Amino acid sequence: MVIHHFEKKNSILNRFMAEIRDVEIQKDPMRFRRNIERIGEILGYELSQSLNFENTTVQTPLGSKRISLPIDDLVLCTVLRAGLPLHHGLLNYFDRAENAYISAYRDHPNDSDEFEVVVKYLASPSLKNKTLVLTDPMLATGKTLENVLDAFKQHGTPEQIHIVSVIGSKEGVAHIEGVFPKNTHLWIGAIDDELTSKGYIVPGLGDAGDLAFGVKL
């Protein structure tokens, strides 16, 4: 797996990463969602440089101009519900992409530390020979993305896979390295050191879905 880790670089991305972690700024859900969206835009721009391009001619009112444009058939897939703001950020830039949605959640029997990831809904176009971009803001254990990859097998084999995450854990990144094809690209804002016994990233930022859309039952 090719890992693009942006915490080590100085850029405006650091501002948005700091704000989504800040417990005071997190009290404003609209700002939290917008910051996740902006992170998606930045990571989308970085990702775009790895795509395939082709020269074409654009006609202007005064002449013509040769320009290089991306030609990949993209499918953007988000893991509901936490992934929606990140998905929107990517869609702002890849506005011609097809879209897929999948629901995946952790089931903790009797509120125990042990859990399994349950996938209940998937809507997707064919992935055959396309470029699949998976968006999941919190790459904790990596089990969600493993189950998502398995669920997509019925939709064809993509030519290329990109994963876009905001924050991950070292354990989660290591897990998906062993699951996804070797030529998969991971675009991630930060990689934190620890996981709690229930699989939450430390220091992380908390529950991204709850911060964006409200606490669930």
CATH architecture: 3-Layer(aba) Sandwich
Count of spatially separate domains: 1
Query: Could you name the CATH class?
Result: Alpha Beta
Strands, total number: 12
- SS field, number of helical segments: 6
The structural class is: alpha/beta
- What is the N-to-C succession of helices and strands? EHHEEEHEEEEHEHEEEH
Instruction: Report the mean per-residue pLDDT as an integer.
Output: 93
CATH topology descriptor: Rossmann fold
Approximate shape: globular
Low-confidence stretches: none
Summarize the structure.
This protein is of the alpha/beta class and 217 residues long.
Tell me what the structure shows.
With 217 residues, this protein is an alpha/beta fold. It contains 6 helices and 12 strands. It has helices at 13-21, 29-48, 84-93, 143-151, 170-177, 208-213, and strands at residues 2-5, 53-60, 63-70, 74-80, 98-107, 116-123, 131-135, 138-139, 160-169, 185-192, 194-195, 201-202. The strands form 3 sheets. Strands 1, 4, 5, 6, 7, 8, 9 and 10 form an 8-stranded mixed beta sheet that branches. β4 (74-80), α3 and β5 (98-107) form a beta-alpha-beta unit. α1 packs antiparallel against α2 and α2 packs across α3. The radius of gyration is 18 Å and the shape is globular. The termini are far apart.
Q: What does the secondary structure layout of this molecule look like, with pairings?
A:
Layout lengths: L1 E4 L7 H9 L7 H20 L4 E8 L2 E8 L3 E7 L3 H10 L4 E10 L8 E8 L7 E5 L2 E2 L3 H9 L8 E10 H8 L7 E8 L1 E2 L5 E2 L5 H6 L4
Parallel strand pairs: 1-10, 4-5, 4-7, 7-9, 8-9, 9-10
Antiparallel strand pairs: 2-3, 5-6, 11-12
